[in-house]
């Protein structure tokens, strides 16, 4: 049996890590040398996979400067701004995108949905509601729009409107009935009998709970 120096055993993980990093850098460099825009998109996707939103946003913005007509990239950049805690910049990006002439309908609706999320994060509730109402009639976007509407109405303690939005959501997707959320809304509306039929053993039925927390089920 050939003796093995323990130092080599300790060095193996380091060598493996260096090889992985080198291969990753070589792949990014090769992509950029073939197509600068595609290279930046490759970097952006790799950064997203690594959980580095800031690096992904930088790569996306560089790609957008070279291709200002790449509208889906702008929408992605707006979403990243919001994830990074900059809803004001996200709003600017999505409003600019929505102002483009000849915007495809699906991209317009999905951008409106993202804009509503921006407004929610920024605390601009009336504009968030306006955006969601424009999207909620679309068959392809109604479910997420109504889920956000439920969240919006709860934040404003508009319990009847939240329940109405939940009812519309259940018509689209019966699996989203969310008995716990419905119970909460019914209790806030003083409809204890209806709430009890959903959750007869709920502890809130046996003691006062004046400041029940908002249940953000669909955010």
List the helices and strands and how they pair.
Layout: H1 6-34, H2 36-49, H3 53-66, H4 71-83, H5 87-98, H6 105-122, H7 125-135, H8 142-155, H9 159-172, H10 179-188, H11 192-198
Helix pairs in contact: 1-2, 2-3, 3-4, 4-5, 4-6, 5-6, 6-7, 6-8, 7-8, 8-9, 9-10, 10-11
Molecular structure report:
- The protein is mostly helical and 219 residues long.
- Helix content is 71%, strand content 0%.
- It contains eleven helices and no strands.
- It has helices spanning 6-34, 36-49, 53-66, 71-83, 87-98, 105-122, 125-135, 142-155, 159-172, 179-188, 192-198.
- The chain is elongated, with a radius of gyration of 24 Å.
- The N and C termini lie far apart (61 Å).
- Mean pLDDT is 75; it is low at 4-40 and 46-50.
Descriptive terms for the model:
219 residues, mainly alpha, 11 helices, 71% helix, elongated
Q: How is this structure best summarized?
A:
This protein has helices at 6-34, 36-49, 53-66, 71-83, 87-98, 105-122, 125-135, 142-155, 159-172, 179-188, 192-198. The protein is mostly helical and 219 residues long.
The largest sheet, given as strand count, sense and whether it forms a barrel, is: none
Query: Percent helix among the residues?
Result: over 70%
Relative strand content = under 5%
Oligomerization status of the protein chains:
single chain
Annotation field: number of helices: 11
Q: Which term fits the overall shape?
A: elongated
- Mean pLDDT metric: 75
> In angstroms, what separates the terminal alpha carbons?
61 Å
Backbone structural class: mainly alpha
Rg estimate, integer Å: 24 Å
Helix and strand sequence? HHHHHHHHHHH
Low-confidence stretches: 4-40, 46-50
Strand count: 0
């Amino acid at each position: 049996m050939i003796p093995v120096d323990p130092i080599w055993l300790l060095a193996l993980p380091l060598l493996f890590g260096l090889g992985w990093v080198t291969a990753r850098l070589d792949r990014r460099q090769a992509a950029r040398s073939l197509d600068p825009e595609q290279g930046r998109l490759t970097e952006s996707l790799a950064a997203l996979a690594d959980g580095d939103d800031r690096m992904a946003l930088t790569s996306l913005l560089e790609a957008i400067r070279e291709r200002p007509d790449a509208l889906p990239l702008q929408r992605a950049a707006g979403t990243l701004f919001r994830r990074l805690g900059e809803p004001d910049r996200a709003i600017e990006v999505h409003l600019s995108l929505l102002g483009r002439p000849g915007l495809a309908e699906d991209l317009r609706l999905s951008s409106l949905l993202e804009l509503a999320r921006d407004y929610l994060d920024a605390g601009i509730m009336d504009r968030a509601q306006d955006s969601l109402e424009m999207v909620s009639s679309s068959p392809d976007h109604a479910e997420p729009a109504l889920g956000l509407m439920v969240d919006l109405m709860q934040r404003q303690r508009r319990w009847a409107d939240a329940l109405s939005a939940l009812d519309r959501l259940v018509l689209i997707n019966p699996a989203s009935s969310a008995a716990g959320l419905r119970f909460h809304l019914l209790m806030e509306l003083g409809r204890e009998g209806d709430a009890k039929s959903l959750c007869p053993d709920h502890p809130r039925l046996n003691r006062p709970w004046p400041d029940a927390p908002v249940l953000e089920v669909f955010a």
